[in-house]
Amino acid sequence: MNFLYWLMGSVTLDIHGMNLEKFLTSLAKNNISISNVLRLSHNHFYIKTNCFYYKKLLEQADKLCYTIDVKNITGIYAVYMFFKKRLALFITLVFGAVLTVSSCFFVWKIKINGNTTIEYYDISRVLKNNGVCVGRQLSKVDPDFVEQLLYKNFDQISLVSATVYGTSLIINIKEKLTVPEMQTEFKPLCATQDGVVESITLISGTLNCKVGDTVKKGDILVYPYTIDALGEQHPIIALADICAYVDVQGRVEYNENQIQYMRTGKKTVCRYYNLFGFEISLDNNINKYDNFETVVSQQYVASNNLLPLKIKTITYYQTTGKEVFVDFDKVKDKQMQLSKKLAYDNLPKGQKVLAEQTLITNNQNVYYIITYLKTLQYIS
Amino acid sequence: MISFFESIAKDSGVEIEILKRGYQIYNFGGKSAYIANFKSIITFNDQCVKLKLSRGVVNVYGQNLFIKELNTNTIIVNGLIKNIEVE
């Protein structure tokens, strides 16, 4: 009982009033237990009482017109007095506690590990259709049932384990291993460029070429099958590293009879307003020349570019063609340089040039300048 | 097993009912005094506590006296108790 009184708490009161002895006697006669009565002066004293007697004591004090101040409150009674003045806080705390505790009895997360070919969405859909989903009561989620369910619905699963950890359902999946060759269709290995085969490293498949063969782009190099002792074909992915000498070309065509265009002096100017790509013609000029040279210029109307309005001017210069003969020998070096430049532009980055050769052929007044760069590249 | 009051009644020759109904005063080492079956408090300060009995008055003299417990008809007075008189 004493422990209960201690737990419930006590109140220490600061009392002002006369005739303390009469007050104490009245408390005793009314079965009000008090303790630690300390007299500070003839009309000032402290009293400590249990919270059970607090209200009765107050009534007695009121009868005798005493002034009472609460000096200290201990125990659960102190907590009660605190929340009595802060009811909203108390309700919030209780509500929060109830919500937290009650949420511990539900599944809030489903985590799936180990799935690579099976989509998370597919697994969760199957689980949901069988009553296993977020928000479900923990007591109604059976890990054994989940394991059996996944085994039954997914052939790709080799091993599965399910466990409930806190408010999470954790599923670990191990999928069946499949041979890569069984996952893709079998295609032959073809040459990516023209060339002369220099070396072959066969990994899988049946070779269709040998060192020294000249192959063209698209030719089959390795077939996607192997032949056993009985002559039966077994499909397999064709894999091989095949190097070949590949010629990278730079080609230039030059015609000695050329037409040179020169301006006649006549021109037509057309102007447009351009706003966000939309053009409005400022004048009705139309280009009527058969042969012409075009010069275009644009500028903003406003210097501060507040409105992006531009004026676009297109000038058409009439030209006339004149046939001239330019000897190839005069431009030969320049054309050869151009051909070489084109060949090097076509060379793959980092590729080493083993040999360089330039050939010039002609047909009447047309000359063909071809530069060959010999390289060694993988063509498989 | 004989209770405390039965033992006293037997030794003193006073009836046990009288022992229980009458006032009881216990002085524990001059530091705490337990008085039972008093009627009211006449005086209370840090040097003297006077209590009215059914017949007579009990005075507790000392220093730094304070009432440790007060119930319906029992009181515990703590402090430096020098003398307890019954008038």
What do you see in this structure?
The complex is a heterodimer of chains A (380) and B (87). Chain A has eight helices and 21 strands. Chain A is an alpha+beta fold and 380 residues long. Chain A has a five-stranded antiparallel beta sheet. A four-stranded antiparallel beta sheet of chain A has the order 2-3-1-4. A four-stranded antiparallel beta sheet of chain A has the order 17-16-19-18, with no helix packed on it. In chain A, strand 13 and strand 14 form a beta hairpin. Chain A starts with a helix and ends with a strand. The mean pLDDT of chain B is 87. Chains A and B meet through helix 2 and strand 2 of A and strand 3 and strand 5 of B.
Number of strands of chain A: 21
- In the predicted model, the low-confidence regions of chain A spanning at least 5 consecutive residues are none
**Main β sheet profile of chain B:** 6 strands, antiparallel
The count of β-strands of chain B is: 6
In which order are the strands of the major sheet of chain B placed?
1-2-6-5-4-3
Structural class of chain A: alpha+beta
- Distance from first to last alpha carbon of chain A: 94 Å
Tell me the overall shape of chain A: elongated
Mean pLDDT of chain A: 87
Global mean pLDDT of chain B:
87
Number of helices of chain B: 2
Please compute the radius of gyration of chain A using only Cα atoms: 50 Å
Largest interchain contact: A-B, 15 and 16 residues
* Proportion of residues in β-strands of chain A: 35-45%
Helix content of chain B: 10-25%
Q: What descriptors fit this protein?
A:
heterodimer, A: 380 residues, alpha+beta, 5-stranded antiparallel sheet, 8 helices, 43% strand, B: 87 residues, 6-stranded antiparallel sheet, 6 strands
Helix-strand layout with pairing:
The complex is a heterodimer of chains A (380) and B (87).
Chain A: H1 2-8, E1 10-16, H2 20-29, E2 34-41, E3 44-50, H3 51-63, E4 67-73, H4 76-84, H5 87-103, E5 109-113, H6 120-129, H7 143-153, E6 157-165, E7 168-175, E8 189-190, E9 195-204, E10 206-207, E11 214-215, E12 220-223, E13 225-227, E14 233-235, E15 239-255, E16 257-275, E17 278-281, E18 292-300, E19 309-325, H8 328-346, E20 355-363, E21 366-378
Parallel strand pairs in A: 5-7
Antiparallel strand pairs in A: 1-3, 1-4, 2-3, 6-7, 8-12, 9-11, 9-15, 10-12, 13-14, 15-21, 16-17, 16-19, 18-19, 20-21
Chain B: H1 4-12, H2 16-21, E1 24-28, E2 32-36, E3 40-44, E4 48-52, E5 57-70, E6 74-86
Antiparallel strand pairs in B: 1-2, 2-6, 3-4, 4-5, 5-6
